[in-house]
Design a protein that fits this description.
By secondary structure, the protein is an alpha/beta fold. It has six helices and seven strands; from the N terminus they run βαβαββαββαβαα. It is about 35% helix and about 25% strand.
């Protein structure tokens, strides 16, 4: 696979793997760190758009004259953004919250070209989770698939608990491929 003329501003191995599935290998991976704090009263959709845009602009500033691709993903139950759990007990509460209910996964993809032109797409996917028994929650916690990710990692054991997905499966993993390909193609990166 040929290396394409863009930098991926993300340390997510899932995003890189998704890109390679559609024939895109970034020339470099250079994640950026920004303050991801929510503003008072900020709703999840404006929040994720703002964070993805801020990451992309920060990465573009650090890599002047380069094309930069960035994305950010959140899981939302009602209006509550689910964060990375620090320990198994916190993750148990997350799984109990998501059990038997529909929640949303929102991913915002942002691209800044060499001239500073910004393109952004934000995708919302609905996930219908089955009611999880205490044993199923224990099994998921024991898998440690949740460690280091916000909410859960859908590519593993959790797939067996999802009744239905309406939207982009790759977006739930961290990069909606259809929208990303269109953004990159629109920027002349093919």
């Amino acid at each position: 696979m040929a290396v394409k003329d863009f930098i991926l501003a993300s340390s997510s191995p899932q995003r890189r793997a998704l890109l390679t599935q559609i024939g895109y290998e970034p020339k470099q991976i250079r994640p950026v760190n920004i303050d991801e704090s929510e503003h008072l009263g900020e709703l999840p959709l404006p929040y994720i758009r703002r964070i993805a845009r801020a990451k992309a602009l920060a990465a573009a500033a650090e890599n002047a004259g380069e094309n930069v691709l960035c994305a950010d993903t959140i899981i939302v139950a009602g209006q509550k953004i689910i964060r990375k759990s620090p320990d198994a007990e916190a993750q148990r509460k997350v799984m109990e919250l998501l059990s038997g209910r529909t929640h949303r996964v929102i991913t915002s993809v942002c691209f800044v070209d060499k001239n500073g032109k910004l393109s952004q797409k934000t995708i919302t996917t609905k996930i219908m989770m089955k009611h999880l028994s205490p044993k199923e929650i224990d099994e998921y916690l024991a898998s440690n698939e949740w460690v280091g990710v916000a909410g859960y990692k859908i590519e593993g054991l959790l797939q067996g608990y999802v009744k239905r997905i309406v939207g982009s499966y790759s977006g739930v993993i961290g990069l909606p491929l259809y929208e990303t390909k269109n953004i990159l193609n629109g920027a002349g990166i093919k």
